[in-house]
Design goal:
It contains two helices and two strands; from the N terminus they run E-E-H-H. The protein has helices spanning 23-71, 79-105; strands at 9-12, 18-21.
Length: 109
């Protein structure tokens, strides 16, 4: 297939030479905008990724404490159940995070 301008514009110079432009300029603007967007995303990712990781680790540390406090006044809940509950909740959160990541990075849609 031959490369042709989709929306050519013509500009006539003072010397009478007609130059075609239009689609090629738009392609340049699109490329620039795409590069600029990627650079901005990279800068934001570099800033927030450590914050997200810290928050994730903080929840991992707080969850067993919260479950243990919940179970403190309940003699029917054994220590092994507390550990199982903590593990189940954290594993469920990991599954949810992985599923969300798949949807957010799926480029087929």
């Amino acid at each position: 297939m031959q490369d042709v301008l989709v929306s050519p514009r013509r500009f006539t110079t003072a010397g009478g030479v007609s130059l075609a432009f239009g689609d090629s300029i738009q392609r340049g603007v699109d490329t620039w905008a795409w590069e600029w967007g990627n650079r901005m995303k990279g800068e934001i990712d570099a800033k927030v990724n450590p914050q997200i990781a810290d928050e994730y680790l903080e929840v991992n540390n707080q969850l067993p404490i919260m479950i243990r406090e919940w179970a403190k006044d309940r003699p029917d809940i054994q220590e092994s159940f507390i550990q199982d509950y903590s593990r189940d909740v954290l594993e469920g959160r990991n599954r949810g995070t992985e599923t969300a990541h798949k949807y957010l990075t799926d480029t087929t849609n």
